[in-house]
Amino acid sequence: MSNTLKHLKEMISSSGLSGFESPIREIISDAWEPYTDDLSVSKLGSLHGKLFGSGEEPRKSVMIATHMDAIGLIVTSVKNGFLYMDTLGGIDSRVLPGQMVVVHGEEEFPGMIIQPPDHALPKENQSGPVPINRLLIDLGLEEREVAQKVKIGDLISFATEPLELDGNYIAGHSLDNRASVAVLTKTLEILNKRQHLWDVFAVATTQEEETLGGAATSGFALRPTIAIVVDVTFAKSPGAPDHLSFEMDKGPTFDWGPNTHPKLFKSFEKVAKDFEYSYQHAVYSRSSGTDAITLQLAGEGIPLMIVGLPLRYMHTPVEMIQIKDIERTARLLADFISQLDDNFMDTLMWDAEKEEDEAK
Amino acid sequence: MKSLIKALTEITGPSGYEEKIRDFIIDQIKDHVDNFEVDALGNLIVRKGNKASNGKVIMLAAHLDEIGIMITHVDANGFARFSTLGGVYPRNMAGGRVRFLNGDSGIIGMEPGGTIKSVPDIAKMYVDFGVTTKKDCPVNIGDVACFERTFTDLGDRIVAKAMDDRVGIAILIELLKNAKTGPNQIVGVFTTQEEVGTRGAASAAFGVMPDIGIAIDVTITGDTPNANLMEVALGKGPAIKIKDSGMISDPKVVKWMVETATHAKIPFQREILAAGWTDAKAIQVSRDGVPAGCISIPCRYVHSPSEMIDINDVTNAIKLLSNLVSKTISI
Prior knowledge:
The complex is a heterodimer of chains A (360) and B (331). Chain A is α+β, with helices and mostly antiparallel strands.
């Protein structure tokens, strides 16, 4: 098993839900420790790994942001020995009935999500998906014990084991966005053996699935010269609209839209072409739906690029991704960062097309 | 306490037009605090106590503004159309009366159409001032108003418009007057424009740079007939917010609040609010981040002209907050 696969499997076997990231942060911290010069934790719990460049001070810096928080559930009521729940992050609640979960009460309890039979539901909920506020969790414990050991606000994470599929795919919960964290870990490993002039800030952000607050505050704290957000995007699957979904095993997407700095996008394309990486164009309007939304606006504003990893069945406990996409994206990022030089920022005017044309 | 809440709820102060309520508060607190200032967005920022080396700067935020309406058009017959300031629900408008900043009053009228049971859009509503010409209409485009409804004392339960968040204001005034600050500095911030997107709190937090941020605001309850499942009820104590749809409270802050309440034997409830948020949302993501939480007062019929709270929850919230801010905090 490759290091990347092992690392990823460990990460998607952990909880670390939005706002409550400590368990996953410890795993990532251990993985980054050998590859970084400094590790710290932000006020909102994001992990900051710094790898210093070899350029002259004051050095420019590139921040790579990958969110580490996972979607999950939270206990909203304890009644008659059963738990009611709400979502942390966006969950497709149609997939919930029958799921095995871990309830993080006074201790960790195994449990399962059940939907009451039709006759026990109000008439309007008797056909179609049962809304989340009618679903229950059964822990198999006495009512008294449940009342003592589980309380409102306790977390519920998916218990789905990672599943290695033929064809170099892996499935499990929280691949959004731990697959991207695996990219970043690999990038750090490569950069350790490579010269790079700029400082590298590897950041595992918190709360992306809820508030985008981790990226906003880490961006303000670190004030990088430029930033790269790596997050998952929609892979092609039956019924997915062709123009909004992307091939697996064909490299990452480069995402074009208002959160993306146009010149940074072009410099990514150039590096990909020079080093012969395959990549795909993705276009988003208005909002990228990623940490880039708040990170772009941190401090005085940060020129930013978004790289996507195609993933199937987003926000379910069986997300699926191609492992080779992780490894090739990591190499691409390392090659991009290695070529950043003292003059790079001179090329980075937001809308300099016109001036260039006039100069010609 | 009831008379302070009554006085506060009777003042008109829609989002962006908080001057009257702010002036009232300055009168109340000016002799009890170290200093106060009004920032560029109209936030009233009040400091009490000095931060010792083992102390914290604690920002306590309660919002000045209430939901309301803004006039957008006056027709030839003197009927005025309006848009909303904050979350105004059409179904709460029937039979409503509004009071403008200058004291003028009008009633909400609705175009006919639909059925007797249906609720029209805001666009089909207007303010009737009892005039017949545009010239006699007392308001102009941009004038703002709030809903008018008398304060009613039902015993433990009291009802008024703008209980959201004048009850929070009352609590914060009480704390600034009487709370001990221990090694901490309390920065009481009476924020503007919460109802239109926590705008005052965002700029205030950027300026204050607190070590901890706590909002004091109302939350909805699940204790009325056929209410959505929510484990918060009137009279069972202030609610310690764990999560709402804009913020996940810092787990360390929640733990500190729960332990403080438990130790001081103050009743409290654990709050998860499915839809809605408070100033704490903006404070949490200010600058490089602030450990943030919220103490909520359970309130029925939020954003209606008759918001109901239980006075015992107010008393207990003051007790809890006094305990929180007066001791050495290890977060």
